[in-house]
Amino acid sequence: MSFALPYALLGLLAVPVLVAAYLWQLRRRRRTAVRFSNVALIRAVVPRQRMWRRHLPLALVLGSLALLGLAAGRPQVRAEVPISSSAVILAVDVSGSMCATDVDPNRLAAAQEAVRQFIDKQDDRTRIGLVVFSGFAQVAVAPTTNKDDLLKAVDGLTTGRGTTIGAAILKSIDAISEINPSVAPADTGDGTGEGPDSQSPTPGSPATPAPEKAKTVPEIVVLLTDGANTRGVTPEDAAVQAAARGVRVFPIGFGTTEPTQMVCTSDQLGGGLFDGPPGGFGGGLGPGGRNFLVVDEQALQTVARTTGGEYFKASDADQLQGVLNDLPKHVDVQERDVEVSVAFAGLAALVLLLGLGLAGRWTAHPQ
């Protein structure tokens, strides 16, 4: 047990002072007592009372004062706190490859459905934020308990060019810093993954800082992607920043390694990544409308290892849903210092009431 205000424990010195004063008063009474020669007469006049009954009420009162003194020091214990007292940042890849149809009907639609179900299953205390990324990363919804806003944003996801996994991690850090003052914002520019400010050295080069783990914060990042970083800060370097702030990242690699066709709906197309008739868009990044898409598992595993998270692989919609459903089993509790001063104060009140009650009862009925 630790104390947030240890100097307040000086108030406990009042308890031994009061005990000493009480003992002095008892001795003083004995010295000034009137002596009677007829002890039997005293016993007949004065009601009999057990010795411990005389002292127990006062002991309880002093005990309650001691508990209040401990409560004033704001005692804290190390305990496991449910993730519902924290926040989850969902970072979702909306690059053009999310239109791949190796997952029915396509990756983006399957991801949207899985994220919807994940949001619906969280309790009303869990704050969820949404970060989306393709050629740049942005906070679509700041951490909130308003599920309607989250679901509306998920339904409106559209695709874009590029994949900036590193920038998505940095944007997620920024979202967490808005609700947790102990988490500093990301160091890199505006987190878009574009421009010179967002460029980072190659992982493992002398300029790359060594990961320094900080005290783990309860907020986590769940990063869903189907590809590899194409520009801006690297996932490995972004993970170093997350680890330095105690933010854990749980990456999910989504999709297969099979050549597949790219088909987006008009709603998913958004910025016009592909050209084609409304309602369904063929074509893509490879010959004949096909593309060989590979998740950069090594980078994602490094991110998980660096930040203290865990990497998951999902090849289809069912596996993705299973990963999101099982995720709370891996991150549902965090060790934190929990203040228990209220418990000490409540116990002090009960002890005080007990002491006063016994004093009143035994005064009225000394037998």
Structural class: alpha/beta
Mean pLDDT: 78
Show unreliable segments: 190-211, 271-292
Q: What's the alpha carbon Rg, rounded to whole Å? A: 32 Å
Strand runs, count: 11
User: How are strands sequenced across the largest beta sheet?
Assistant: 5-4-3-6-7-10
Strand content: 15-25%
Distance between the termini: 43 Å
Query: Can you tell me the overall shape?
Result: elongated
Note the main sheet: 6 strands, mixed
* Distinct helical segment count: 11
Helix content: 40-55%
Order of helices and strands: EHHHEEHEEHHEHEEHEHEHEH
Can you characterise this structure?
The chain has 367 residues and is an alpha/beta fold. Helix content is 41%, strand content 16%. It is built from eleven helices and eleven strands. It has a six-stranded mixed beta sheet, with helices on both faces. A hairpin with a 3-residue loop joins β4 and β5. α7 packs parallel to α9.
Task: For the structure shown, list the relevant keywords.
16% strand; 367 residues; 6-stranded mixed β-sheet; elongated; 11 helices; alpha/beta; 3-stranded antiparallel β-sheet; single chain; 11 strands; 41% helix
